[in-house]
Each structure stands twice: as structure tokens, then as C-alpha cells.
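User: Okay, second chain of the day. Same drill as before: sequence in, C-alpha cells out.
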Amino acid sequence: MTQELQVLPASLPAAPADRTLRCTAVRQETAEARTFTFEPEAGEGFGWLPGQYLTFSLDTPHGQLARCYTISSIPRDGLEITVKALPGGPASSWLHDSLAPGTVIEAHGPLGGFTPPALAGGLPDTAPGYLFLAAGSGITPLMSITRALLDSGAPVDAVLLYSAHGPAEVIFHRELRSIPEASGIRVETILSTGSIPTLGAPRAPGRLDAELLLELVPDVRGREVFACGPPEYLEAVRGMLEAAGCDASALTVESFDIADHAPAASSGAPLSTAAAAGAQVFSVEFVQSGRTIDCAADGFILDAALAAGIPLPSSCTLGMCGTCKSTLLGGTVEMNHAGGIRPREIAAGKILICCSTPTGDLVIDA
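Assistant: Same drill. C-alpha cells below.
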């Protein structure tokens, strides 16, 4: 029986109830990347928007870690995440070494807004023009989006440019090379070393830059752009698009740098020190988690929440990726972001808690 692609409403709660998931399969994608398949322990099904992620609570030898991983599949194919093992990364290393069929873990979600509007609210009659830019593990949300577009059967016009170090590091290689251009999706790989003739025309090894971007996608100015990769890649993408004359509002980004490291230290002083020094301290109420904490006026809200043991979704901690985007229900903040939130989202009351400090008592829908 064919199951239709389940599409959730675009306005999902920021912190859904916990989910218990059981790993059912593990598949090797590359030497360093594996795909993990899950099913809900209670047997209930749930859907997600292509490009969304889950926040996993992992019991590791380093303690309990909260990490965000993009869902790389679409609902009809079951729940999958694809994770690259990072050297010295406690979370990704634990997943690769210890997560096996039968293992049960806790998760929150789905979360995130890295989804083309056409997939969030119904497919239009005319094919939208997309440009998907991915580097390394940043292919995972764009793979989910690509699969959803192919599965929809609707007309589509998309170009996927995937940057990787070499042929052996191209995740989903077999599936990507099987996508015919007749589908409306063209896939090109840009490799630092070597080439893959079956994924676009062979070219000299190198990196994506503004010149190559215009060569591969001459009509880039008319496309909606979705980019995912490490912060330095996304910064380079912004420069390329600006050089190509693209409107900044056409770009949606997400970082896959999912904090596989210790939480970043707050730029402000610890609360006890701040209070002793006479610095202002404000209350922050998180509605969905039912917790209220204190946050110094010169401290970031995310840092205060993590220090209090509230596992909120976060990634780059630099105001770039948008992972920690939340709705501010009451109060005001000072926010110094780096492009991870759009003006219309700010106008709608959204903030990035990783780069926001309170200017009064706050109420946040998280």
C-alpha cells in the first residue's frame, strides 16, 4: 500500500512532547557517515516537514548530551537520520559506536523551518525554481527535500550543488546519481579532489565560487536558495550570491554544525558573580517546558537555559543557523544575529536565543 507524504502545518510548536524511538536498522553511507532508521516505541506514527530535525537525548559515557540531527528521509520511507562521525565528537562517536538495532532513545520534535514553502503548504501548479547548496553533511536536509519533491510528482525545477572533499565522501552517492534530469532536478558535485563523472559533467577539482556558481546556474538570480553546511561554507555562499546579484531575501540557511562539543561558555558572567557585582538579573519563563530561570542582562538566553538543564535546540550558537529560533511572547531583548533570522520573522516576534540578551523579564514559547 502506498502511503501519501504527510505534510504538517507550517506553524509547529517550538518544543513538542518527548518521543521514544527504537533503532531498527543501521546503514553505512560512506566510511564516516551512517544512516540510522527508527520507529516510535509506542507504535504511533508521526510526520514531519522535509528539512526538519529532531533533538536527541543521548546517554553517553560523557553524560547526557542533547544533539540536533536532521531527518534525511520522508515519512513514507520511515524515520531516518544520517550522521557523520566527527573526530573527538562525543555524540556522533557514540551514535556510530553504540547505536544499534534495538537501542531505545528519547527525542524531541520535529522542529525547524528549513522547508521550501511549496512543501510546507501545498505544491503550486507551476514549478518553482530552487537552488540547493550543500557541503559535507549539509546534504541531509536537502536530501529529504529532494526526496519529497521527487515523491510529489509535481513539476519541479531544481539544481543541487553538493560540495565534498572527494568522491568517497559524497553521501547518498548512489541515490543522487540515479536522479534523472527529466525529473526536473539536476545534481552537480564540486569536489576538492577527484571527480564523479556520473554526477554532473567532470570538471577540474576545486571549490565552489561565484564564477563557477554562475557557470552552473546562470539563472541563479531567479531561484529560491536553500543552503546547508558548516558556518564558513554558509558565509562563503552569502558572498557568492551577493556577487551574483542575488537578493539576500532569497536565501534560507541551516548549519549542520550541531554542537558536537561542549556547550559554549556564556559571554556574560555567571549569575552568582553577576548578582554579586550588582548586574541586573531578569526572569525567563519557558512556557512549553514549564520552567522559569534567571538570566543576567549581559548573558545569552540559550547559555542560561543550558546551564539550568533545559535542553533547548541549538546549533551554531552564532546567530547564523536559526536552529534556536523561538517566539517571544512577552518582554524585549537585544539581539545581535548573523543572518539566521529574517526581518519578517523578527516582526512576527521571533528571536534567536543564542544571541539575545534580556532587557527585562521574558516569556518565551519554548
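The first helix runs from residue 90 to 98.

User: Thanks, on to the next one.
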